[in-house]
Design a protein that fits this description.
alpha+beta; two-stranded antiparallel sheet; 4 strands
Length: 100
Amino acid sequence: MLKNNLLLTLFVALSISAFSQSLIFAELTGSPTLNTTGWNLTGAAAIGDTGGDPDANPDELILTNNVGTSSGGAFYSQPIEYLSALKSLTEQTVDRCLCS
C-alpha cells in the first residue's frame, strides 16, 4: 500500500512538472493597443513599441527603460487560487493518463 502511494505521488509530481507550463491564469492581449485591464504596472513598466515588430502600435509591454538602474514589473491585480488551479490540473493530468 505504501509503495503504491509512493508511486502514485511520484507519477503525479512528474506529470505536473511535465504540464506545468500549460496552466495559463492570465494573459495580456490586444491589438493595436495592449489591454492591461486587471494588471498593475509598477516602476518603469509601460505599454509601448520597441521597434522589434513591423508595426508602430503600442502592443508591447516594456518592463524597463534601456538604462542600467531601471526597474519595472507587471502583476495581475486579482489573487489567484493557485492550489485550486493546481488541483484541477492534477486531476486533468491523472484522467488523461488513466484514460489513454
